[in-house]
């Protein structure tokens, strides 16, 4: 009996002192469904928000909703609040910021910023522009990815870099929200809520822009609705293809804008929030499913999106981020 108890004790010690099992990111996929993605986009496109034009009551309601999603995912605030205000033609714009700390190993901290603009064109001529693809899809992808990382944190997984999730306002007003965000960083007003240290530009490992992610109306290849475009200055591509293969998603991937060098440069570094980050020297990555004939029109509604493919895109960006972190 003593020998048996000793053997059992030795086995238990071997289990508890052996290599720690690292939870797979596939666990996080279980909390995201086609239905949850669709319901969030439909909510943001409800007439309550009246197209989410910056500086309006509808935009403010959208900002409150995003802050609630960040709180549900356990994201930390900066300076005690999720919102940072800035001027938009005499009205208040709001960037919504949530922080997820990475490993605290005593090494110099670095940060990955994941951002999506939540404003759209509002009401024009009495018609609501819902902005489902542009850019409720990017916002819902971002809050869903935050949920997935929160799930991994619950399972005991931690990552080497910190993640800052930012819903930017006023993209349709010359990207004033992205300008305000980068000004906060460049001016030393962005501080790590754990250490209190300044989050300076040189500590930003990458800025990831999620913009127009829900449609399958502009495929890369004929007959392939399951596609995704990543634009960057050449970095982070290996991690994308690796995630696409190793996690079994097998999306049709593009690393330029439909084969056009000119449009690739324009989309990546001259228009949209990404232009602000690229111009300021950040390693900027853009994920998109491309502009369609419905972009920025009344027809850009929740029914125009492909939710099963959208879910796969969310999963791929999450797994890519795992590798980047």
Describe the fold and architecture.
- The protein has a single domain, classed as Aminopeptidase.
- The chain has helices at 2-17, 26-29, 34-44, 57-72, 132-154, 176-186, 237-246, 261-269, 273-279, 307-324, and strands at residues 83-88, 91-100, 111-117, 122-124, 127-129, 162-168, 204-210, 227-231, 252-254, 284-288.
- The longest helix is centred in the middle third of the chain and has 23 residues, at 132-154.
- The chain has an eight-stranded mixed β-sheet with strand order 1-2-6-3-7-10-8-9, with helices on both faces. The protein has a two-stranded antiparallel ribbon with strand order 4-5.
- The protein starts with a helix and ends with a helix.
- It is built from ten helices and ten strands.
Number of folding domains?
A: 1
Shape, per Cα inertia axes: globular
What's the CATH topology label?
Aminopeptidase
Please, how many helices? 10
